[in-house]
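Dear Dr. H.,

I hope your travels went smoothly. While you were away I took the liberty of generating a structure for the chain from your last submission, since the lab meeting agenda had it listed for discussion. I wanted you to have the full record in hand beforehand rather than looking at slides cold. The sequence, exactly as received, is reproduced here:
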Amino acid sequence: MENVEYTIANPVKRLLAYITDSIFISIASIIVLFVIGQGSDLTAIVESSGDNIENLIENLVPIIQILTGIQLTLGVLYYGVYQAISNGATLGKKLLHIRIVSIDGSEFSILNAILRYIVNAISMQLCFLLGLVMFFTSYKQALHDLLVKTTVVDE
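The corresponding predicted structure, in token form, is as follows:
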């Protein structure tokens, strides 16, 4: 980080912001699921499956696929677009007074935010292993930060 002084955000604050944002995204996803009419089918699916867990799983797969698509779409909009236009901060980051900055001081762009979200989503699917890299780098950068040359700082 040249010519710019920041206090690197504590990884625990980052994790708490991520959990907070995940709750926001989950609630929004469920609301969208019900608005598009898929959520109302849940009770009928559970009742029609009876005690057969295989039928229940088979009947829930389409709804889970729709919910996953909703979450990915909302994720790109929230972590990508909103975060980039909100000075590098999601609602969770704002609550914890942290934000994302580019290491070299350049603007944190929407493209970087979307790429960061995609890499973050993939790394979280790998049981947080790649995300845990932040505990071992000098700027406390996770893999998605390293790839797009960003870090998270205290405000």
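Two observations you may find useful: The beta strands are 98-102, 150-154. Residues 11-154 form one domain.

With kind regards,
E. W.
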